[in-house]
Amino acid sequence: MTQTIRTEKAVSTLPGLLMLPVLLVAAAAFFRFGVAAIQGGGPLGGVLFFLGGVICCFCLGGLFVVNPNEARVLQLFGDYVGTVKEDGLRWANPFYTKRSIMLRVRNFESAKLKVNDHDGNPIEIGAVVVWKVVDTAEACFEVDNYEHYMNVQTEAAIRNLASHYPYDAHIEGEFSLRGSTDEVAARLKTEIQARLEKAGVRVIEARISHLAYAPEIASAMLRRQQAGAIIAARQRIVEGAVGMVEQALDLLQKSDRVKLDEERKAAMVSNLLVVLCADREAQPVVNTGSIY
């Protein structure tokens, strides 16, 4: 036997501002007629009038308030009747149970979770999720507690996301948690939404709010990042130096002012590279004799 998934449906109710004075007047009239009937020697009629007054008072229990961005889920002896979203004082069958569901946009900030990234490095990660209830029937009847369900599934999605991306990209064009924020946020939102679909919740936005290496490897990873930055800077320096040397040789060759053989060119290239790539300023040596 397959379980039927309940979806939200609207139910009509009466305006409470109309039903309140009607019920109060009716109750007062029944009690007054009941007292008059008893005094007039008609106890049976008096009992019936008093019973009518009690029923009117009982019907006052059907009044309920719906606040803005709030819904009331109505049930009759366990059966789902419908959802009321009209703001203000409303009246429905007093036998209905009325459960309040907030429709406001809400934030959930996860705890700092310690997980392993795609490379197996332990990291700390947390996220902020903006969400709201869009189907009150699913939120009430498809999951036990939709708020707790949303919290647990969000943390599970964050853990799963972290295992699919490295903290830092080591290959050009590779997605990473730190460098591909938009792509990671889009995937996180999609994954959380897929998990919360049956709970009647719509995810508006999801983004990583905390990302760091775990304390036990933070210092080692910092040195690794510094080494990577130094290597990248050195590569740029060498590329620029080689370009400048090639430009210098081309200009000398075009000017025909200085004739250099292959050995002198090699020496010039070596000296220029040392000057351009050195960490410190070069100390020139003045040659007062022949260049040969």
The H-and-E topology, N to C, reads as EHHEEEEEEEEHHHEHH
Strand content: 15-25%
Give Rg in angstroms. 39 Å
How many beta-strand elements?
A: 10
Secondary-structure content class:
alpha+beta
Number of alpha- plus pi-helical segments: 7
Look at the structure and give the mean pLDDT.
82
Helical amount among residues, as a percent range? 40-55%
Q: Main beta sheet, described?
A: 4 strands, antiparallel
CATH class of the largest domain: Alpha Beta
pLDDT < 50 stretches:
none
Return the CATH topology of the largest domain.
Answer: Tetrahydropterin Synthase, Chain A
The CATH H-level superfamily of the largest domain is Band 7 domain
Q: How many domain units? A: 3
Q: Identify the quaternary structure here.
A: single chain
- Would you identify the CATH architecture of the largest domain? 2-Layer Sandwich
Terminal CA distance: 100 Å
What keywords describe this structure?
three-stranded antiparallel sheet, alpha+beta, 292 residues, 7 helices
Short structural description:
Helices cover 47% and strands 21% of the residues. It has helices at 16-39, 43-59, 136-141, 146-162, 181-196, 215-255, 262-277; strands spanning 14-15, 63-66, 70-76, 79-84, 88-91, 97-102, 106-109, 113-116, 122-133, 201-213.
